[in-house]
Design goal:
The chain has six helices and two strands; from the N terminus they run ααααββαα. The chain is mainly alpha-helical. A hairpin with a 2-residue loop joins β1 (about 125) and β2. InterPro entries: DctQ (IPR055348), TRAP_DctQ (IPR007387).
Length: about 190
């Protein structure tokens, strides 16, 4: 199963790089549009459509799985830290199951919606240009589908206790000891 974890990590790395490229391209696209508009008085056709229908979706949804792989989603552990280790593990498992169900539902529904948009050839018209946007509808199911896969894989690991294979995964004790707020009090 470690091979599956390494494969997921590669896919997560690839989608994260796509997110970084989307941010970079969006900045360049907007900058060029502003410069051309202020110097020559013309606008680049499709800037608003590209930013709102492509760049922003890639930036928002493709790196979701990266945050899960690296355990960087927001979590509040005020009460759970006080619970026994077994209870914490059970709650973690429940959160994986719940997350997998929610993200699987989002993936399914958004994929069905993307297929509908492709079938009708959804587009926007900006400054007289017809810009097809139906491909952008597939970004959400790709991001949430990868998130579902990571959460299911983490659920499997929490049940079996096997080695991860995920690039950013660390054993819980390493993460806890390395956390800056997890300093041990000493008598000095």
């Amino acid at each position: 199963m470690q091979a599956l974890g390494r494969g997921l990590s590669r896919l997560i790395h690839f989608t994260t790089v796509l997110g970084v490229l989307a941010v970079t391209l969006m900045m360049l696209h907007i900058t060029i549009d502003v410069v051309v508009r202020n110097i020559f008085g013309i606008t680049l056709p499709g800037t608003i459509a590209a930013v709102s229908n492509f760049y922003m979706l890639v930036v928002a949804f493709l790196p979701l799985a990266y945050a899960e792989e690296a355990d960087k989603h927001i979590s509040v552990e005020v009460v759970t830290e006080l619970m026994p280790t077994r209870m914490q593990g059970a709650l973690r498992g429940f959160s994986y199951v719940f997350s997998a169900l929610v993200f699987a539902a989002i993936t399914r529904q958004s994929f069905l919606e993307a297929m509908k948009k492709q079938a009708v050839g959804t587009f926007v018209i900006q400054e007289g240009w017809k810009i097809p946007i139906w491909p952008s509808y597939y970004i959400l199911p790709v991001g949430t589908g990868l998130m579902t896969a990571v959460v299911l894989y983490k659920l499997y690991l929490s049940i079996t206790g096997g080695p991860s294979g995920l690039r950013n995964a660390m054993p819980d004790d390493v993460v806890t000891n390395a956390h800056p707020t997890a300093r041990k009090e000493t008598d000095a």
